Amino acid sequence: MAERRIYLKEWRKFAGKTQAQVVSAMQGFDDPNLPTTEASLSRLENGKQQYSERVLLALADVYGCQPWELIGRNPLKEGKVIDMMIHLNAREQERVMAYIEGLKAANSGD
After folding, report:
1. Dist CA 44 CA 88 (whole Å)
2. HSE, side-chain direction, 13 A CA sphere, residue 33
3. Residue range 17-64, pLDDT digits in tens
4. 77: phi then psi, degrees, rounded to nearest 5
5. For residue 57, what are the contacts with CB-CB under 8 A and spacing of at least 6?
6. Model's pTM, two decimal places?
7. Span 77-100, mean pLDDT?
8. What is the crossing angle of helices 38-45 and 19-27, to 10°?
9. What pLDDT sits at residue 79?
């Protein structure tokens, strides 16, 4: 099984936070299972320490993203369309998808 790529460091940088700021925010959750030092956060970011669901939930809260994004999406490489889609309601997302499908269909005739 292929190892999953995590993007904890990229999300921290995307959020414009230092490791010290993240560790300080983690203290507000009052949970001893969350990173309590910059060193422990660094180990998580570098894949040298296992992460838990609780860690992903807390970091997502601090970074303003969804927990799954920390594992599956590099915010420093993906575009604005994906970022905007997340903030749309279901009806708006359907309309955007229909528009994109229409663009694809129109371009397939080129």
Report:
1. 31
2. 9
3. 999 999 999 999 989 889 999 999 999 999 999 999 999 999 999 999
4. -115, -25
5. 67
6. 0.69
7. 81
8. 110
9. 66
Phi-psi region of 83 (alpha: psi -120 to 50; beta: other; left: phi over 0): alpha
Amino acid 1: pLDDT: 44
Residue 58 CB coordination number (10 Å): 21
* DSSP characters over 16-76: T--HHHHHHHHHTT--TTS--SHHHHHHHHTTSS---HHHHHHHHHHHTS-HHHHHH--TT
- In whole angstroms, how far apart are CA 66 and each of 36, 60, 92? 22, 6, 19
H or E segment to which residue 71 belongs: helix 67-72
Query: What tokens were used for 11?
Result: 């999300």
| CA-closest candidate to residue 12, choices 37, 20, 4 | 20
Band (pLDDT 50/70/90 cuts) for residue 108 is confident
First to last CA, the chain: 40
